[in-house]
Design a protein that fits this description.
With 882 residues, this protein is of the alpha/beta class. The protein is built from 29 helices and 30 strands. It folds into six domains: 215 residues, Rossmann fold, CATH 3.40.50; 151 residues, Response regulator (Rossmann fold); 157 residues, Periplasmic binding protein-like II (D-Maltodextrin-Binding Protein, domain 2, 3-Layer(aba) Sandwich), CATH 3.40.190.10; 89 residues, Helix Hairpins, CATH 1.10.287; 92 residues, Periplasmic binding protein-like II (D-Maltodextrin-Binding Protein, domain 2), CATH 3.40.190; 51 residues, no CATH class. Helix 11 crosses helix 12 and helix 21 packs across helix 22. 32% of the residues are buried.
Amino acid sequence: MAPCTEMAGRALLVAVLCCGNLVAALPDVIRIGGLFHPADDRQEVAFRYAVERINDDRTILPRSRLSAQIEKISPQDSFHASKRVCHLLRSGVAAIFGPQSGQTASHVQSICDTMEIPHLETRWDYRLRRESCLVNLYPHPTALSKAYVDLVRAWGWRSFTIIYESNEGLVRLQELLKAHGPSEFPITVRQLGEGADYRPLLKQIKNSAESHIVLDCNTERIYDVLKQAQQIGMMSDYHSYLITSLDLHSVDLEEFKYGGTNITALRLVDPEKPELQKVVRNWVYGELRYGRKLDLPPPRDNLTFIKTETALMYDAVHLFAKALHDLDSSQRIDIKPLSCDAVDTWPHGYSLINYMKIVEMQGLTGVIKFDNQGFRSNFVLDIVELSKDGLKKIGTWNSTEGVNFTRTYGEAYTQIVESLQNKTFVVTTILSSPYCMRKDSSEKLSGNAQFEGYGLDLVHEISKILGFNYTFKLVPDGRYGSLNRETKEWDGMMKELLDQKADIAIADLTITYDREQAVDFTMPFMNLGISILYRKPIKQPPNLFSFLSPLSLDVWIYMATAYLGVSVLLFILARFTPYEWQNPHPCNPNPGHLENQFTLLNCMWFAIGSLMQQGCDFLPKAVSTRMVAGMWWFFTLIMISSYTANLAAFLTVERMDSPIESAEDLAKQTKIKYGALKGGSTAAFFRDSNFSTYQRMWSFMESARPSVFTSSNMEGVERVVKGKGNYAFLMESTSIEYVIERNCELTQVGGLLDSKGYGIAMPPNSPYRTAISGAVLKLQEEGKLHILKTRWWKEKRGGGACRDDTSKSSSAANELGLANVGGVFVVLMGGMGVACVIAVCEFVWKSRKVAMEERLDSFPEQNRVVVQQHQCNGSLLKTSGQ
């Protein structure tokens, strides 16, 4: 409905202007009243020179001249203000401009509403009414507050502190307070005191570690607040200030340009606009012509100095003149004196007000345009930021598109890199191999020279790219940084950053959610995960009967059963089929009996011969027995081939039995203790995990006595070495890789339990994160990160000590000793021994049988046979009957 109403109003205006039968007539002199306080000298000058500029411009009100009627009033004297307004009305003014004080302005507006005289204001006022005679050129409070909301959201501020001077400040920021819901990070609201000492309040804010400040106070107090903030250390590189005043360009910020603090504000007036510079120059020269001096605060050589309300006063006079000019084209206007004691009103007052609200013009404060409610809610603000060269425009804001940063990424990055030149960073770290270690030297070293490691080399490479200096400092408590859930306070390197005692933290510092919420991290310079450090399993001595290992016990039993089954089946079928019964004497066509060679023992001999791939001196002749033999041969072919292939691996590969192979194995047992670094990210991973296995492991670690947690990674490594297989240490895979390169007794068990990265940490709101992340990315693309890791993991400080052991073990794996194949010799000797025993038994049995048949003494007969059998004169043996 709003656009339609506005379009209808404009159409009505055009229709009225097209009516040629109306006669326009304005008096030669049009009086306008201006109410100013003693401190409003510059607004008074703007008012007078705006009138002068319009009188010189013959395109506006060509047949009339404006006359400025100026009255001086006290900001607190409402009664005097009312009397001066009535005096102006009696003189026949067509409009009242000002004053700036809210206390007096309300009385002036009340009189103007009663007399239907246009009242133009240029001050911030939240008590605007649509039906009044007031026309306020100051941006509407709701729209202005929305600009602050959009800017805070564009920056991604999750928490901040609002410092306000008066209750009007809370009204000015009400949209910002509403937009920050209760579910988000809390915001703090603090009020400036009445006195001039703001340090106690600022110290409280500093102790809260809040670095985002929204400052809403009178323009004259901005310098004092920033100066005292600088004195207590709240103007560092990591602090950001959003100044709600539209007149920050009028504040002397020379002392804060080189501090690195992000100071940002919005402005309605662009001091660098040529039109504005020309107007202000005319004011200065005009005042000099009249023997007056325009008082400009520092910098005094800057003729572009002008406050927002001053520029709005200049635009307000032009808006009135243009609206009166348009109204004069449509109707006859009479301007007459009015008395506050009478009931008369000016009949053209509301018409002139309506014309002013539909007029659109270009002024010193940009496009002047009112919405359908009569408020100035559609305007453009410049976003300015303090740099070494003063306030610079970095973007714009408007009610339709919101924030639009005009500064490119390249320009912002260049500005950050330039600010880094020759800047000295304090780098906090912790002694942790190979990231930071003390140098082995007989001389006393100090400063950066006493340390070496991957972290120092990485910072050095980054400094060569960005051009900053650095000083390393060990963290006092020797901790990485963990959050106390009860006190909500951090320790270790995280505390150093939050207290701004350090600018950078580098170590094997894991990027976690909690840490990311507290400080800023660069992109990871190393990716890793949690794994298990454990003692290498002891080599098991070869089993005497390791030749049985290729097949399980079940398979050996099934093979023996198959062997017996095939032998019995072959015996039965050979007895059943007629084709296996043969004539023992082929020369006798009518034998008295037939012979079958497949006795039970022969069947077993045939099966074992086939299994051993040796065969025998008789073969099946019937189809059925040949089928049995063929299937048995196929079975033995597959089994012997599989056995042979698997036997090579079992005999040549050393058996390394480890009691654990993964985290699940650890969780299932209680004999092997396991722990992690106390207060580290690994312990936090198990503590916060929702996975049942990891929850069970965390419960075990917490309840274990003595404690399984360690104060450092090296202590954990020592416990693994001394634990003799009864302790495992959970730590980052990169640290495990470093340890096992130097300690050949240890190894990594299982894969990675998670995926994360190490990053360089900085205080929150650090402006250098993007630049340092870019440097890390460049080092990664150039392969220098890999070179650094190879240097400190595999080359320096004993790296590569276990390579020879690995090569020796791999070459020795192909050699077979007696221990590997000793069981085969045992079986051979055992078989030979059994054969000898059976031969003796056969001999004794046969000798006794012959002696019994021939009724001889068995002992002499055995001696005779033994002597004859061992004579080397042939293979013939004489029987006793010969």
